[in-house]
Design brief:
By secondary structure, the chain is of the alpha/beta class. Helix content is 36%, strand content 15%. It is built from 8 helices and 8 strands. It has helices at 32-42, 56-67, 87-93, 121-129, 143-152, 173-189, 199-202, 209-223, and strands at residues 2-6, 46-50, 72-77, 99-102, 133-136, 157-160, 193-196, 228-230. Strands 1-2-3-4-5-6-7-8 form an 8-stranded parallel sheet, with helices on one face. α6 (173-189) packs parallel to α8 (209-223). The chain is globular and about 45 Å long. The model has no long low-confidence stretch (mean pLDDT 96).
Length: 235
């Protein structure tokens, strides 16, 4: 069993701008020794480390961990899509046996149409050329934009992160219907895969299985078992 989405980090590295400074769970180092008993307890044999900071340095950091950690099956890193010179980094990173793809942190980019701009088109073309994977980290506001993007690059390997972060906490039927319709279009009209991950984070602190069930059920129904992968989003 492979965990398709987990993180290692060390806050003192200084490039996790999203991390709350006073969060007792998140704002502390996490490494392979912390994860080992967790995966052993549930039968996970390997995992994929996903970038958590928008920097080349963090990608190098997690690749270094992957080099010495047999349970790490792959790494999804980061390059600057706004800088065509980062094609150099994609070239060299693609030579690493555990480097699988890249994830721009689109959820944090103010312009919802950013991914469709000509200034970043080089990166998507390069991802296809190098046979890498694009991790789509976005929000429901990006659903139609991602549909355009995935249709524009039908040969690109795409994995949707965290089910596109539905607004479960708000609990409004309109929100669910809009999200569900957008995800259905992505499933039916593109070749994208979807990670069944991160849903708890989108619910209230007192989350429940019943709150999550409609979202998880919809993903499993539209993407099916062959295009759905499980990720813990640990820690």
């Amino acid at each position: 069993m492979i965990d398709a989405h987990q993180h290692f980090w060390h806050p003192k590295r200084g490039d996790y701008s999203w991390m709350p400074k006073d969060d007792k769970i998140l704002c502390r180092p996490y490494g392979p020794l912390d994860l080992a008993p967790e995966i052993a307890a549930v039968g996970v044999t390997q995992s994929v480390i996903i970038q958590a900071a928008p920097s080349i340095e963090e990608t190098e950091y997690i690749l270094g961990i992957a080099d010495v950690t047999p349970t790490v099956a792959g790494v999804v890193g980061w390059v600057d899509f706004n800088d065509p010179k980062h094609s150099y980094h994609l070239d060299r990173l693609a030579e690493h046996p555990k480097f699988k793809g890249v994830r721009p942190m689109i959820q944090d980019i103010p312009d919802p149409n950013w991914m469709l701009g000509e200034q970043v088109a080089w990166a998507f073309r390069y991802i296809v050329e190098l046979d890498l994977t694009f991790d789509a980290l976005g929000l429901p506001i990006h659903l139609d934009k991602f549909l355009t993007l995935f249709t524009r690059y039908p040969q690109m390997h795409v994995v949707i992160d965290h089910c596109m972060k539905p607004e479960i906490e708000r609990g409004e039927k309109l929100n669910f219907d809009t999200w569900a319709d957008g995800m259905s279009h992505l499933a039916l009209e593109t070749n994208a895969h979807c990670k069944l991950s991160g849903l708890i984070t989108e619910d209230k602190k007192d989350w429940s299985v019943e709150n999550l069930r409609p979202y998880a059920s919809h993903i499993l129904e539209i993407f099916g078992p062959d295009r759905t992968m499980w990720g813990s989003d640990w820690p």
